Fold:
Amino acid sequence: MERANVKSLTNKIMIVALAGLLAIAGCSRSPVGDTNTSVEPQLLQRSASSSSVLMTPANLYCEQVISSEQGGRLELMDVILEIPPHAVPNDTTFSISIPDINVFYNEFGTDGLVFDEPVKVTMSYRDADLSMVDESTIRIGFYNEVTGQFDDVICSVDFVNKTVTGYLNHFSAYGLISDLIDRGSLR
Structure:
């Protein structure tokens, strides 16, 4: 009987000790700390005042046939596409669509189009809500349908004019992405 009491007491102590360790370490964290410090980039949000401007679907889409020989330029709101001569073998319809005015996310078409010469894209973030954004991390990303995440595009940022410029080899969905400010560093 005494042996059963000791075993029962030992089991209770083990349960309490295990519960204590979980409470200290946290259920979803390693007791030695977070080994994955990367944070998924976030789509840049528009400020409330700029996204409240009345926009209709017609205002959020444009298209134009661009000459293969001459190249051309297409603009919609805060996005500029500059297509160089011979980027595509034939005259091609290019388009910009902004499906959600609240974020800096654009769908460039013809979707899946691959270029012989890179196409220059410039996106302005002058209307962005930068309150929780590390501005030095703003960049262009394309939406990778395989991974479900944004992949970085090599680009340059003009912090004075609040624009980001990159060169695209293909069309898909692109957005301005950034890292959020670590709230712990604000304390």
